[in-house]
Automatic annotation (TrEMBL):
It comes from the Bacteria. SUPFAM superfamilies: GAF domain-like (SSF55781). It comes from Flavobacterium microcysteis. This is GAF domain-containing protein.
Length: 790
């Protein structure tokens, strides 16, 4: 015998009509003769079958009593409404139904012999939990809202999927516990409410068939096809799952459900970035376009004047309900009409996708039947257009990200001023199939003017060596104290050996710090001394305590003393971060003057390269005024960076000096992006002179002296031509007037290898008073500020 609810459930189901029979008994005792007679006759008919009152537990019994059940439920299923209502008797959330109306029978029959009616996306887990929630609400008085919409998806005779929302009337249900039931506390209920996903927990609190479900529910369906299809479209469009992509077949089926047109076809045409033409969608090779079928040209050739004005000018839907009639009444649109008719398009809707006043593309809905698509049902698109717009915008963004990824992988992180050039090349490898396997071209910008500057940390190598020496000295002193203490307690000869060797290393360290001293001492400590000390952790308690104290005093990452070096490294890092941040921030302002290439590097200080010229921004008119403006900006920027360091210096854990330098080069050069190095470099032998000067100038001396050309508290400007000196003296005069710069000195620079005749201006920086500074730094404030900005 096949029992009702073969699916695992907390219920043992008994289909009972007790409540209906009780109503009939009341009617039988009433004074209305014809109603009483009808009720008495029906009660007499079912009297031999007590299971109709007590409960039916198998499908076979339902089949046996099918006609009697139909009579019993006649008041609930009126014959006059059987061709209108979509109703049946059911068990909650189960797919078995009976006593169906004629309209429901017809819907199921049209779906085909192979169709099995199944609730959408409803497996064992939600089925079991929803039944448990019925018990919680009905028996325990909870108020759990578990009314998630549930649907049947049923194809009609034309194959269009229709979506029917399921509603249950549970007035004829009763629920009773059995001896298997688990009595729940409020804590149990709270636990269940917070653990929907834990099916084992629900089965523990509601064991299978531990409750009686007696009665039946009336299931009513209503056609929710449009709303459900729109919901499915939203889910499909908004999903980030790669399995839910903007696929033609999926979208087409959903639109067929919305419009109830079996042969409805969909297409999409994208606008080019300059809006001059339509093009095939880059994000889906299967996406068809009826407007572009067999051609890809500017908008007028693809659309025609009338449609162009409606779609692009007015940004409204363009609708043709009968293409043949449209051809007759609009002969000027002959090209478009014949183009559509050639594809058997008899009615159509073209809808522009607009995001922030930007045209993304055109959604195309077409049918081979005239009048099926028209100005009335075009309004259905209003419900889904926002989601279509967001989806297409997202796909365009994804395409942009793919292009960016190629640029990042094949080139480097590209500055916005030259990004367009890289994008042109990368775009070929994403949209042009023939170009995808070709090598990536090198990017060259010709006739650009270079500017170079730096703010360098003076004597950083000496300071770093001092920090290393301090840490290694402390390291050896701590170890010697510890080992001498251990030897006094344990009397092991091997300890004397380590003491002797550490004393020798200490002597070498005091004499001079060599290139390999740090690694030599670190290797000896980590590989020779520390393993022995760890062995002493198992010795007497006093020794163990001393050893543990020593290890706690070390840096946990390198297991060495790292105090002075840490201060130095952190100081260097803070200076670089602050200077780089300030320079980057000021660059945003400089880009507004005229787009130019900008890159900076953090070394022991911050260097920057600037390149400006017509080839960087070919859409704009370049003038030497912009070069002069950028040179003045660079000088002002270094003044501000020097002032910023002046005010942050007292808060730093290590005291360091900085020097500033500008290299002036008035001859335009070419720069080429080096694919192997992922960076720009000068192009050609002649231009290499600039790179030679740039790399050697900061370590050079004043000609005929041992004095470096750079000096703390001053900006050095290196040049080779007299007009460059004149130009920079003008800038200096302006900044002297603003009390930013002071006295000037002039000198020649010593000859460099292959480069002679360089001169320099060195100008004093006038630091602003601390109370005029933006920041009254403490070390902690500085660390916090830079951690946020970076």
């Amino acid at each position: 015998m096949k029992h009702i609810l073969d699916n695992l459930s907390p219920f043992k189901v008994k289909i009972s009509f007790a409540k209906v029979i009780e109503v009939l008994e009341e009617i039988a005792g009433s004074d209305v003769d014809y109603r009483a007679a009808y009720a008495k006759g029906l009660l007499k008919e079912i009297e031999p079958y007590p299971e109709l009152r007590d409960g039916i537990e198998s499908y076979q019994q339902i089949e046996k009593h099918y006609e009697r059940i139909k009579y019993l439920l006649a008041d609930l299923f009126p014959t006059a409404l059987t061709n209108n209502e979509i109703k049946a008797v059911a068990v909650p959330f189960d797919n078995y139904i009976f006593n169906t109306t004629e309209r429901l029978n017809k819907i199921i029959k049209e779906a085909g012999e192979d169709f099995d009616i199944m609730i959408r996306d409803f497996d064992e887990h939600p089925f079991y939990v929803m039944n448990c929630c019925i018990i919680l609400n009905a028996y325990y008085g909870c108020k759990i809202d578990f009314g998630t919409p549930i649907f049947y998806d049923i194809p009609n005779a034309d194959g269009v999927i229709k979506h029917y929302r399921i509603l249950y009337n549970a007035d004829f249900l009763e629920i009773f516990p059995t001896e298997k039931s688990v009595a729940l506390t409020q804590e149990d209920i709270n636990l269940l409410i917070d653990n929907y996903d834990d099916l084992a927990l629900w089965k523990e609190k509601f064991p299978p068939q531990s409750w009686i479900l007696k009665g039946f529910v009336i299931m009513t369906l209503y056609d929710n096809s449009v709303e459900s299809a729109i919901s499915n479209l939203k889910s499909n469009l908004l999903s980030n799952n790669q399995d839910s992509e903007f696929k033609k077949e999926t979208i087409e089926n959903i639109f067929r459900s919305i419009y109830r047109i079996p042969d409805l076809r969909t297409g999409f045409a994208a606008f080019s970035s300059d809006f001059s033409r339509l093009k095939k969608a880059d994000f889906d090779e299967e996406m068809h376009s009826f407007l572009l079928e067999g051609l890809e040209d500017d908008c007028r050739h693809a659309l025609g004047e009338c449609s162009l004005e409606t779609l692009i000018g007015q940004k409204k839907y363009f609708i043709i309900s009968d293409v043949k009639e449209f051809l007759i009444t609009n002969p000027e649109e002959k090209g478009l009409a014949e183009h559509l008719l050639a594809q058997n398009v008899q009615s159509c809707i073209f809808a522009p996708l607009v995001k922030d006043e930007k045209l993304l593309g055109i959604v195309e809905l077409v049918s081979s039947e005239p009048k099926l698509l028209n100005s009335i049902n075009a309004n259905k698109l209003d419900l889904v257009m926002p989601f279509l717009v967001d989806t297409i915008d997202r796909y365009f963004s994804d395409m942009q990200n793919q292009i960016d990824a190629i640029i990042q992988k094949e080139y480097t992180a590209i500055h916005p001023s030259v990004y367009w050039k890289f994008r042109e090349e990368a775009s070929l490898h994403t949209t042009d199939k023939n170009a995808r396997d070709l090598p990536f071209k090198e990017i060259v910008f010709k006739e650009v003017y270079p500017l170079y500057g730096q703010i360098d940390i003076k004597g950083s190598s000496v300071a770093r060596n001092e920090a290393i020496e301090k840490d290694l000295t402390v390291q050896i002193e701590r170890l010697l104290r510890l080992l001498r203490f251990v030897s006094d307690n344990l009397k092991l000869p091997v300890i004397y050996q380590n003491v002797f060797e550490l004393e020798d290393l200490e002597k070498q360290l005091k004499e001079s710090l060599k290139a390999d001293t740090e690694s030599l001492i670190q290797s000896y400590v980590l590989n020779e001394v520390h393993p022995m000390l760890r062995h002493f952790k198992d010795s007497n308690e006093v020794v163990r305590a001393k050893v543990e104290t020593y290890f706690k005093s070390l840096d946990p990452k390198i297991m060495m003393v790292y105090d002075a070096r840490k201060d130095f490294d952190q100081t260097l890092s803070l200076i670089n971060k602050k200077m780089a941040f300030l320079l980057d921030k000021k660059q945003e302002e400089a880009q507004s003057f005229f787009p130019h290439y900008y890159e900076r590097f953090k070394t022991d200080g911050v260097e920057h390269n600037l390149y400006i010229g017509a080839s960087i921004a070919p859409q704009l008119s370049f003038s030497h005024v912009y070069l002069s403006n950028l040179r003045l900006w660079q000088l002002q920027a270094l003044c501000e960076m020097e002032n910023e360091y002046y005010h942050m210096r007292p808060s730093l854990p290590y005291d360091l000096d900085v020097t500033s330098l500008i290299l002036v080069f008035s001859t335009p050069i070419s720069i080429r992006f080096r694919m192997d190095e992922k960076r720009f470099d000068v192009d050609g032998t002649y231009n290499a002179r600039y790179e030679v000067v740039k790399k050697r100038i900061d370590k050079s001396n004043i000609k005929g002296t041992e004095e470096r050309i750079t000096q703390k508290g001053k900006i050095t400007i290196v040049y080779s031509q007299h007009q460059e000196e004149v130009e920079y003296r003008r800038y200096i005069s302006l900044l002297q007037h603003k009390n930013k710069l002071g006295a000037i000195e002039t000198f020649e620079v010593e000859d460099l290898q292959g480069v002679t005749g360089l001169k320099a201006l060195r100008v004093e920086i006038l630091y602003s008073k601390s109370d005029e500074s933006e920041n009254g730094y403490t070390y902690q404030d500085l660390v916090k500020e830079l951690s946020i900005k970076n």
